Amino acid sequence: LGVLGGTLVGVLPGLGPQAAIALLLPAAVYLNPVSAIIMLAGVYYGSMYGGSTTSILVNIPGEAASVVTCIDGYQMALQGRAGPALGIAAFGSLIAGTFGVILLTLVGSRIAAFALRFGPPEYFSLMCLALVVLTNLSGTSLAKGLISALAGLFLGTVGMDLVTGVPRFTLGLSMLMDGVGLIPVIMGLYGVTEVLLNIEGGLKRALVTEKIDHLLPNKQDWKDSTKPIIRGTLLGSILGVLPGGGVVLSSFLSYAIERKLSKHPERFGKGAIEGVAGPESANNAAAQCGFIPLLTLGIPANVATAILLGAFMLLGVQPSPMLISRNPELFWGVIASMYVGNGMLLILNLPLIAIWVKVLKIPYSLLFPLILLFCLIGVYIPNKSVAEIWIMIVFGIIGYIMKKIDYEFAPMVLAMVIGPIFENAFRQSLIMFRGDFSIFFTRPISAVLLGCTILLLILGFVPKIWAFRGKLQE
Amino acid sequence: MKKDEVIPSIAWIIIGIVICVAAAALKLGTWRRPQPGLFAFLIGCGIIALSVFHMVPQLTKKSEEGKTLFYWEGLKRIIIVFALLVFYVLSLERLGFMICTYVFFVVIFKSLGRKSWGYAIFTSLIVTILSYLVFEIWLKVNLPKGPLRI
Fold first, then answer.
1. Each residue of B2-28: pLDDT tens digit?
2. A interface mutation test: which of B19, B71, B85, B135 has the most A CBs within 10 A?
3. Contacting residues of A for B99, CB less than 8 Å apart
4. Distance between CA A129 and CA A124 in Å, rounded?
5. What distance lies between CA A119 and its chain's CA centroid?
6. What phi and psi, each to the nearest 5 degrees, are found at residue B34?
7. Between the CA of residue A87 and those of A7, A92, A350, A473, B127, what are the distances in Å?
8. pLDDT tens, position by position, A170-224
9. What's the predicted TM-score (pTM) here?
């Protein structure tokens, strides 16, 4: 159900995995934690696949990782080869996704065992790294991304202070005592904002009119795609494990590598199947491997897994190195479901492509009020609270303004979810080591993680400072 | 001066100052004994510092000519949706799910979709009944009833 629901929402133009998880999150609250998490994980990788369908058929990426798929996928569709493009994306996703799950099965428990050595300083440094990596990947300006992340950290502090019990930044509103709700924020940012941005430019959309057949790639397609799929899978698996990012980076890098290695780089951008096979495999492997830091460290690898982490918490499950020993049925249940889910993705999607195309043909004038209705009711259902709808509307407007002024809200969402853990790790470190900041640099794991963070910040900021200095001298 | 970068930066600086003031009111404590406001205070300082860092180079750059962030036609559509969302929240518990949803869809189809009255009335009715069946009957979600009592 998760995979199917995820693909259905992922197929809707403009709605990516984040919106898919957000829209289906309220339904998950009614299930038991294991089933709910299995469903939401399915929604995540189902919507990743659904996103590639919109990229290929209408040139609208469901999310950032599918941007590269648009380049050659849409060109293939224009040449009447939408079928093989969708087919190779599905097969590539299956192969890469399964490899990612195997990796998770093999190394998950080892990483969890290693992570038992982590104390508050290590967690603090790891989360710093996660935030900076994601910020680096999510937008054009590092400073803007970091501002967005800091705003998210601030949102994470709203509510009752866990240590002293003092209410913080609640504006006297009782609905904010437990903090700013995750569901209304996500629905606002990824549901309402997307609708506002889409209707601003009018309600017309490009539609696929050609009939799609011959979904199975032919011999030549397979010959061209095998190596890109293998390379994409390996690349995505390595980058996906990095806390803070990997899905977007891996798809872009895979495209660049395939183009570089190709004997005919001029074919890229004009419908080269390698340009679909490589990036699609890479982003699916990275998406699956993103579960490694999430399940073993409790650190999300990207925004979608950050929302999943929030969902885990809503369901009373705290991902940590202890998850495997305390909640083995959940950990291994999720992994087992991924094997089934990846297979289901292929079995369901290839025959259902005709239906997905029909979904794409729903006029936007009918689709967007439906999305808004799902958001309104989805936010209302969990607590039967109108106040949560107000929060959603406010964040819908905030998201719209942020997009207009070119501030990405992905770092904000990630920071908001990990904010309470981040603050806790920071305060515990200071209390445990009596306000001694050197602890972050003298403990080896923390020092390496923080060193990487600082290096990334230097690499991001120094060129700008130099450019500005040069301009001043001129 | 690049206005579309400088004005948001100034807004962020103000937000940062407000956060710092509100956090300081909660007590900051010391590094050894951090109090509830310390973390938020550092966040506020970070926002101010980064906004200044981002804003300063923009002061010497020129705004792109002809670039407008908001335009009236688009903004009008957004205001309509915003007003409808506000209507929905304010009247959901008074008028109930059925009436609210029906009015919401009719107004959207008429004002934004520019559909005929017949289409708006009929399609809204179908959508409302279908969503009622999905949420209330199938998913057994207890939605506000309003005067219709269904």
1. 788 899 999 999 999 999 999 999 988
2. B85
3. none
4. 9
5. 27
6. -65, 135
7. 15, 8, 7, 55, 34
8. 988 888 888 888 778 888 887 888 889 888 877 665 555 556 666 677 888 888 8
9. 0.79
Q: What sign for the dihedral angle of Cα B140, B146, B149, B150?
A: negative
Element (H, E) at A159: strand A159-160
How far CA A399 is from CA of A197, A306, A391, in Å, comes to 10, 17, 12
Q: For chain B, how big is the Rg over CA atoms in Å? A: 24
The pLDDT assigned to A222 comes to 84
Selection from A402, A418, A412, A382 nearest residue A184 by Cα:
A382
Helices H / strands E in chain A, number of each: 21, 2
Please give the Cα distance from A240 to A258 (Å, whole number). 19
Best of A377, A426, A465 to substitute, by most chain B Cβ atoms within 10 angstroms, is A377
**Residue B80 structure tokens:** 């309509």
Q: Is a pLDDT exceeding 70 seen at residue A13?
A: no
Q: Which helix (H) or strand (E) holds A335?
A: helix A328-360
Cα–Cα distance for residue pair B109/B128, rounded to 1 Å = 13
Q: Is A428 on the interface with B (CB under 8 A)?
A: no
